[in-house]
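User: I'm new to structure prediction. If I give you an amino acid sequence, what do you actually give back? Let's try with this one:
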Amino acid sequence: MPLAKTYPFQPCDSEGPVFKEPWEAQAFGMVVALHQSGAFSWEEWATHLNAEITAAQLEGDPDLGDTYYRHWLRALEKIVSKKGLSSTAEISTRVEKWRDAYINTPHGQAIELTNAST
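Assistant: Good question. You get back a string of structure tokens that encode the predicted 3D arrangement of the chain. For your 118 residues, that looks like this:
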């Protein structure tokens, strides 16, 4: 079964899922992997994602499709916290380490996150 039919709201073109940035594909893959491992049902995931999209729309997001994966990421962070897979503090620390690594990496070089376990 094509991915577009398995995950009907995933933006797709004739080639399959469409991602503008690598992190979008990674976030998508993390959700699929967590779902497939039994961490949460697809219905639970859809509820979290819908809540994030609705909240963003209420805050003025014009819902043009360019913020979809930001909502996806926020929903992922919330569901893994709710399920006890990671804490909000752990997620915040990891985000800050990635941000620092990104800012301090010269353009054109691979971003390396050191000491990722802390």
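You can read the tokens as a compact description of the fold. Here is one thing that stands out. The first strand starts at residue 12 and ends at 13.
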